[in-house]
Amino acid sequence: MALQLWETLKEAIVVYTGLSPATFFTLLALLFAAYHVLSGLFGPSETHHRPRNLEEMQPLQPPVQLGEITAEELKQYDGSDPKKPLLMAIKSQIYDVSQSRMFYGPGGPYALFAGKDASRALAKMSFEDKDLTGDTTGLGPFELEALQDWEYKFMSKYVKVGTIKSSVPETQEESTSEATKAAEDVPSESPAVKSEETSSSTADAKQE
Fold first, then answer.
1. Of 33-37, 136-140, 167-171, which one has max mean pLDDT?
2. Helix, strand, coil shares of the chain as percentages rounded to 5?
């Protein structure tokens, strides 16, 4: 059986290649040797590329707590400086999203959210500049629920590193407190006025 297969193979080699079996197998061995040599020559070049890729992938730095910062200061952490962490805020809570730089870093699909409080944009799933704000006034119940889901996701996946300072100016707070004090002073004067009016009317009645 084996001899029949060998004879059939030799006949097929002669028919399809026009070469004798010995010549055919010699060429086959030469091709294999050439492939082995070429793969050995190009093999080291692949190993040279690996360290370069490892150098480009810098290890993640541990999250640094920033405390309370302004929205303007948060813009410094939008990924434009590779030495700084990549930060993003939801509902004034700042998270370190450096581990997801491929999504939130430069060139990523959500890069425009980095360095900002993107609460409104996430709630509306919007990529418009006007929605890149932490203002959530006017959002519907479904949008608020979507925002809550995003917040839970960030709380479970990323480290909170700070909060955004309130943008209410001090002058407005002072005027509000002064208005409150004035409102408190008004009722205290009214009983005195009322008592004076009552006493004057009683005196007039007695004179009559």
1. 136-140
2. 65, 10, 25
